[in-house]
Amino acid sequence: MYRWLLDFYHGYLVVMVQGKRLEAFLNSAVAKGVYLWGIQRPAPGRLLFRVRGKDFPLLRSSFRRCGCRGKILHRSGLPFLLRRLLRNKGRWLGLLFFIAAVQVMASFVWVVGVVVEDGALPGETRIREELKEIGVQPGVLRGKIKKEHERILEELTIAFPEAAWINVELRGVVVLVTMVGKTPPPAKEEGPLDIIAAKEGLVSEVIVLEGTPLVKPGDMVSRGDLLILGEKVLPRREGGFISQPVRAEGIVKARVWYEKKVEEPLAVWQPVRNQRETVVYSLRWRDRVFPFYRRG
Questions:
Q1: In the chain, helix, strand, coil percent, each to 5?
Q2: What is the pLDDT of residues 180-196, one digit of tens each?
Q3: Which of 63, 88, 138, 156 is deepest in the core (most CB within 10 A)?
């Protein structure tokens, strides 16, 4: 492993030599102190080996003296890799510039989305104008949105009191603002109102807040009977009484009955444990049982 790393650091060549005096070439290389490895002889008159790039010029005189021809088949190692990179430095610089540009562009917000859900909220245009005044718009730094998240929520809550829930979410280069409006309470009915029985029962308690009671504890009522009348009797200064329509309010509690009809057979089979014991061996296949032995 160490030898491979050392060869890769210095760089090496895969060389093919052709000639008749290959042994003389090897002896000449050894005499010059050139280290060769991976020596192979694929065919008569041919020799393959590996040599470091800095030692290859020392072999040229040996090629001439021994009448051999040398050819470089492959270059490998760190020096040759750096040379190829520098040869295409324009392409690599362009790639580095592209990566840097993507990183810079990813640090900004490019899209601001607005989602308005139920409730009476202003239109999307009005919300975008308010976001722009707060500072949430395309081109702002993502770090600023993260840092001022609480302030943005607070200002949106003040600007839109009709919103029940507001959320500002940062998704990459997109800021998504979601608003849910408050649901207005149902409109209160106007005019006089009576309270009637919803079920049949025996009245146990009557609490009148507004109106005139027509039943008392112990009365039996049916569904639809009038319990509290939406009128109020007031005395007059001149004498007598006057009836004034009101919205009846109160609580009427009663005992109710529920009926349930169940059909039962006349004869019911029920197993009873006794002293007898029976052993049955059977084979079950899906929903079918095949007994094949019984004892007792």
A1: 30, 35, 35
A2: 887 777 666 677 888 89
A3: 156
